Amino acid sequence: MKPLISIKSVTKAFTKGKTTIKPLENLSLDVPRAEFLSLMGPSGSGKTTLLNLIAGIDTPTSGEIIIDGKDIAKLSRSQLTKWRAVHVGYIFQLYHLVPILSAYENIELPLLLGNWTKAERKKKITAALGLVGLADRADHRPSELSGGQEQRVAIARAIVHDPELLVADEPTGDLDRESADSILNLLNKLAAEHGKTIVMVTHDPKASASAHRSLQLEKGRFVSEGHLLTQP
Questions:
Q1: Residue whose C-alpha is closest to residue 73's, from 88, 55, 90
Q2: 59-91 tens-digit pLDDT
Q3: CATH annotation of 33-61+74-227
Q4: So where are the chain's domains?
């Protein structure tokens, strides 16, 4: 089976004054479907740059980023925006929920960009809330939820349009250990039971150990790889 993500000889470079900076240099990577992959490395190692390239938020200077058979490096900005809306769910460290909206309304936001009817949106939102264990919190605003519950709402928002790919930037970085473990269990469930391919950036060794595989980045290159056996 072909991998969902195939990155080939990708370099990301920009010029600062007379200096050329390369956050990523000649990087290649395959990510199988339904894999939960962790990216680790010190600040400035290129892991967030790589995550943004995979999500179609940024574009490489050279190389290919093939996702489900399409080289997204060749898409225009407007094409990338449309592609992301269908194929990618993004999970942030600080949730980025709209304070005045309920959990239901926050989850509904990405669906408003599509052509779903109100009934179709309700069905999708209800399913997403159930999947993240918050069916009884639909009417609650973010201020009425714990940090872990807010992140679950954010995950529901990321998966409500049923994307193949989830990218997560420090999804447990603002949570206590118990809430973090709960979120990691949920991410594993999304990969194992719902076929989601997940790429996660983290500084937390325990979070990394919950993934199927961990890659270490330093100065824009992979320096080690571990197949981690610890599962939540």
A1: 55
A2: 999 999 999 999 999 999 999 988 998 999 999
A3: 3.40.50.300
A4: 33-61+74-227
